[in-house]
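A quick aside before the break. I want you to see a complete sequence-to-structure record at least once, exactly as it would be stored in a machine-readable document. Don't worry about memorizing anything.
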Amino acid sequence: MERGEILRWLQEMDESRLEELWKKADEQRKASVGDEVHQRGLIEISNYCIRQCRYCGISACSSGITRYRMTRDEILEAVHEAVRLGYGSVVMQSGEDPGLTVAFIAGIIRTIKEETDLAVTLSLGEREDDELRAWKDAGADRYLLRFETSDPELYERIHPALPGKVSDRFAQLERMRDMGYEIGTGVMVGIPGQSWITLAADIDTFRYYDMDMIGVGPFLPSPRTLLGGPEAADFYLSPQDQVPNDELTTLKTVALTRLVCPEANIPSTTALATVDPQSGRELGLMRGANVVMPNVTPTKYRVLYEIYPGKACMHETALVCSSCMERRIRSIGRVPGKGPGGRRRKI
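That is the input. The structure line, written in tokens, reads:
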């Protein structure tokens, strides 16, 4: 599929034509990754962050936040909860928090590997190579780092670099692959200033880098940030050029991502479930996704990890979330996955 065809599908509004897209994506999903839906237990280990992203509710510039950093014992208890619930992997996610030291994270990874059979995914932001190597040596399997947009000018507007540093997430993704990580990334759909051409380029970029994991969700700004307030109007393009942050466009992006990256693990994201609590998760799975990320963060911390408002499953316990997720998976004729659920590569 060439970029021009991707662009045409993104702008398609005819329901009968879109049924063709949904069918193609679901058939490709079934052929490439099967009917299993792999569950990654999400642990939001810290909401400290030194970055000043203009959309994220836990950025350094956001006010009125109670900050937290989970202890080693709290993290490991959440890990063992994931084991009890039958998940095959855990994702340790945080803001870009220097307080999560190399030794602290490495020690937790080693303990997880000693005590469980779980795969370990990290999503801790931009990090130095020595940190990334130390965590890989400790046993980490995967690393998630969303590039958010392939347009460098738009990226700089919404995600300013730290003083004296250059932000190059594509270079970090490639270095991590060389270190032996499975690499994951993703974009937001409907960022103010995102054109249809840019979003088509984002999808083509997934293919170019042969990403192992790809997360796609609608842009949901925090009201505590610049892009969640009246200043956001200055960022938007004309109505015909600006990508909307709606469910339909997100689902098109998921489906097209499956078609250009058939072997990738693609989650039906929490953000998608937030814009459509009734069926967003299921629709994502029916349009090409094969992963979900049920939250196992203690509820007292989960409510504080508010990167955008109204996040789905904010107040549910891990057990309730697990039961709901399994019911949703089975309701569409799919089955919960077993084991770590790494990328399937064709031989």
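Two observations worth writing down. The chain has a mean pLDDT of 95. Residues 7 and 197 are 7 Å apart (CA to CA). We'll return to this after the break.
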